[in-house]
Amino acid sequence: MRRHLAARGERVADLARLLARSALDTNPVPDWDHVTKVDPEGAKKLPLLYPLWLAETDAVSVGGSADVTPENTAAAFDLLTPLSTPVCHEPSGADHVTEESHDAADLLLVPEVLNGDSEALVGTLGAAVESVRERLAPDLIARKAPWLPDRVADWLASVATSVMLSDAAFEAYIVQNPDSAAARESGVGPDDVLDAREAKRRAMAADRHLESEILYLEYSGTFGGDEAVEALELIDGAMERSRVWYGGGLADREDVRTVREAGADTVVVGDAFHRVAEREAEILQAAEADLDPDTDPERIREWVADRVGADGPGARYLSTVPGVDDPLGLAREYTGATVRSWLELRARRERARERGEGVPVIDIQRTALRAALAPVVEDPDTVAATVARAALSGRGAGNGDGSHGSEQLSLSLFADGTAN
Ligand SMILES: CC(C)=CCC/C(C)=C/CC/C(C)=C/CC/C(C)=C/COP(=O)(O)OP(=O)(O)O
Ligand SMILES: O=P(O)(O)OC[C@@H](O)CO
């Protein structure tokens, strides 16, 4: 009887702990498993049917530490906001945040580096807060309500600044790869790399004092291995409210399992996604030589199966997503749809050229492109039109409808009919 009561008491205590933990989870950042980082710089490409690949990830984060501009950021958002996946903005400079980027992003992620120079901890943040308070917010208020008296407009600009900052999620970074662009940007040298104990201590300060929503262990470009595992194990046990994110060199399922088991709540994958586009450019160029738009779908399937293997970038990227059961099957399916869509777009481009038209008017109804996208997005018409426009528009040119030309797709068909 006494044992029975004790067991019941334990169950009640477990339940109370569980309830307390979920009731006390005040962190507004969802507990995502997998985030894909899209670097907006032109050299980092996107697969043509990026909405398919990104349908598997929990959220996309737009940002990078080199060659990011307000323009390429806006162009990346044009491509990504029509997707159903949430899109975050992670600026690495104060001027990357514009009214446009703010309207487009579901969540602003603000980096602060715990083991770099003071610029990267608080200097850039200070410049950014000043620029929001003194430029972005006043411009917005002046445009929306030009009739307001100056003092009221100024007060509203201050309120808007506070709202923007309280809606943002702060990321406390520990940058552990001194050879990365992120380390160069944040003044992290070899001597600043932290051992596991010191990483945990700073993480605790970020969690309890800075109240950072995210503690980000960053090995950008290289896998952290045992060293990262040791730090994650200590950090994980010490966090009260911060989500623990790990990013850097994740290349396959095994890497992801290792860091998740060590305590990462969320894994961030960057290069492994951009590599899908690099390989895709080669595959599409080969497809132009071997196949045509009327090729039997079964023949295209076989052709793709010969070129897309378990060690290829497509299957490897998908294998980093915990919920994907058959990365190779999915990579072949997506690549097949990409080949069909590409051959079709090229044929349309060609027909428009023969008729002497400039950029073809894209009727995306009844296209392989729209059919491929329909199962994974809420608004396939808009997404298919966005992809087709990006594939057919000129490099870096505006599209004449307020959207930005994109250089990011793995291949583009330019107005003169040449492919890149
Ligand atoms: C509050 C507002 C309006 C804006 C915030 C503007 C701020 C504070 C920017 C912070 C800049 C900063 C500290 C950058 C550090 C560098 C860093 C950790 C960048 C992360 O870049 P990744 O994209 O992960 O790196 P890779 O390019 O190497 O992949
Ligand atoms: O590009 P990789 O090495 O995947 O790194 C992802 C991310 O942590 C960079 O901030």
From TrEMBL:
Annotated EC: 2.5.1.41
Membrane spanning residue stretches: none
Extent of the signal sequence: none
Catalytic activity line of the entry: sn-glycerol 1-phosphate + (2E,6E,10E)-geranylgeranyl diphosphate = sn-3-O-(geranylgeranyl)glycerol 1-phosphate + diphosphate
Gene Ontology process terms (BP): glycerophospholipid biosynthetic process
Highest taxon, organism lineage: Archaea
Enzyme class: transferase
A GO MF label: phosphoglycerol geranylgeranyltransferase activity
Assigned keywords, A-Z: Lipid biosynthesis, Lipid metabolism, Magnesium, Metal-binding, Phospholipid biosynthesis, Phospholipid metabolism, Transferase
Stretches the record annotates as Disordered: 396-420
The name this protein goes by in its record: phosphoglycerol geranylgeranyltransferase
Source organism per UniProt: Halolamina litorea
